[in-house]
Amino acid sequence: MNDRDYIYEKLSDFLGGTFHQAMETQEKALHEFIEEAHKICIENTINYITAFLNSNLSTEKKEEFIEYYTDIYFPALKLAPLEWLEQTGETLKQALKNT
């Protein structure tokens, strides 16, 4: 498995494991992840998000990936999937600063 595939796998694990059908809201799901995850796990997740956002995939493919691995209705958030993922990364970075 190459680095790119590893990053996509880890990011899909984070998205699917956090933003799934059983979540109450995506905000609460992210808060629970921050509360329960070890600092190293949050740092790694930030790195996976950053690598994914900077990857050579087209915007369309990136958004399809995010939509596929989350149970989020993005029009209700008034955000595109990429915007949401960027905000999620920023929220995780802020959480690290507060620990």
TrEMBL record:
List, alphabetically, the Pfam families matched: CdiI_2
Q: Which domain of life is it from?
A: Bacteria
InterPro entries, from UniProt? Answer: CdiI_2
* Residue ranges of domain CdiI immunity protein in the record: 8-88
* UniProt-recorded name of the protein: CdiI immunity protein domain-containing protein
**Species, as recorded:** Bacillus cereus (strain AH820)
